[in-house]
Amino acid sequence: MNRVMMKHSYSIANQILLENRRYLCHYYKMEKPTKKERKELKKLEWEEKLKKEKGNKRLKQIGLWAGTAVILIASVYGLIQLVNSPATNTDLVKLPPITKEDIAAGNPKARAVLVEYADFQCPACAAYQFFVNQLLIDFKDKIYFVYRFFPLIQTHKNAMLSSQAAYAAHLQGKFWEMDNLLYARQKSWENSLDAKEIFIDYAKTLKLDMEKFQADLESDEGKKIINEQYSQGVNIGINSTPTFFLNGVKIENPRNYDDFKKLIDDEINKK
Amino acid sequence: MKLIKNKYILPLIAILAFLGFLDAVYLTILHYKNAFPPCTITRGCETVLTSKFATVFNVPIALLGSLFYIAVIAVCILCYHHSKRIFSNAIFFISGVGVTASILLLYIQVVILKNICQYCVLSEVINFSIFFLSYSLFKRGRLKENKKNRSL
Predict the structure, then answer these.
(1) What is the ipTM of this complex?
(2) Which residue segments constitute the domains of chain B, with CATH numbers given?
(3) Which CATH number fits domain A91-270: 3.50.50.60, 3.40.50.300, 3.40.30.10, 3.20.10.10?
(4) Is the pLDDT of residue A52 over 60?
(5) Which of B15, B25, B72 to mutate to test the interface with A (most CBs of A within 10 A)?
(6) Which residues of B, range 117-146, sit inside 8 Å of A by Cβ?
(7) Among A71, A88, A154, whose Cβ lies nearest the Cβ of B50?
(8) pTM of the predicted model, to two decimals?
C-alpha cells in the first residue's frame, strides 16, 4: 500500500516539477525542456490519460451490469403485475348462458348468480368449495350457484374420472353429496391408480343405484358433457381453476371467506 | 458478403435473448399460478403447457429457459467488455444447447402432443436466431484468428 502511495506521490511531484519547469521556461523565455524531459512529461500525460480511461471503462462496465439487472428485474415485476391484473379475455367474452341442464343449487331467481368452473383434483378448488358451501348456507335463497366442469386432464390424471363420477351421481340427484366427498377426500384418490374403485366406494356410501352409477360412469354421455363444458371454458379464456363468474362477470378469486361474502353482499345490494 | 455488421451482432443477440426472457418468465409465472395463457394464433397452448413434458424433475422448462436467456445476456455483456474469443465461443456453445432443446421441444409438440403452443414456438424461433447469429460471431472470430496467425 505504502509503495503504491509513494509511487503515486512521486509521479504527481514529478509532474508538478515538469509543469513548473515548462512554465518557467515559457515565462523567462529560457531554453526549452530537454528532449528527455519532454519525453517524460508525455509519458506521464499518457499514463494519466490511460488511468482516466480505465476508470471510465470500469464505470461503464458496472453501469451496464447494473442497468441490465434493473431491466430484467423490472420486466419480471411488470409481467407479474400483468398476469395478476384483472383485465383478462374472460371479461370480454360472454359466459355461456345458464340452462336447465346446468348443475346448480340455490334459488334460480336469486339476485346473485355465481358460476364456478372447477376441477375436482385441483387443491384450490377444494379450498373454495368450503367457501361456496358456506355462502349457500349464509345467503340461502339470495344466491344461485352453478357448477361447471373444467377438468385439467393434462396435469391431473384423475380429473376426468372424478368429474364423470360426480356427473353419474348427479344423474341420481346426489351431485352435491359426491362433490363434498370428492373434495374432502381429494388426497386419497388424486394419485391413485385405482381411483375408479374409490369412486365406486363413494357411490356405495351415498347409497346410489350401483348398476346405474357404474353404467353412467363408463358412458360416453357424461364425458361428452364434461368435454363440452371444458371447451366452452377454454373458448371464453378460462385458464385456471377455480374460475368464478358473478352475474356473468369474471371475478378475481377472493383471498378469504369474508372477502367472498362481501362481494356477494355488494352484488345483492347493488340492484 | 456480410449481412449484418460485426458490431450489431452482439446487441442483436442480447435483444433477442431479452425477448426470449420475457416470454419464458411469462410462462414461468403462469405455471406457478396454475394457469395457462390465451392461445390466439395456434391451438392447444393449454395441452402443451400442462403436459408432462412441460416440466423436468418438477422444474418448469420455462424457468430453465429464463435462466438460459439470462446466461446468454450475461455472456453477451462479458463479450462486449472483454472482446475475448472465449466469450464468443461460450455464446455459440450455450446457443447450441438452446437450439438442441428447441428441436426436441418442437418435436414433442408436433409429433407427440400434436398441439402447438405459440409462446413455445416464439421461444424456439428466438433460439434458432441466436444460434445463427452466434455462429456468425464464432466464424468471424476464427477467421480473424487465422488471419492473425498467418500474418505472424
Answers:
(1) 0.84
(2) 15-151 (1.20.1440.130)
(3) 3.40.30.10
(4) yes
(5) B25
(6) none
(7) A154
(8) 0.57
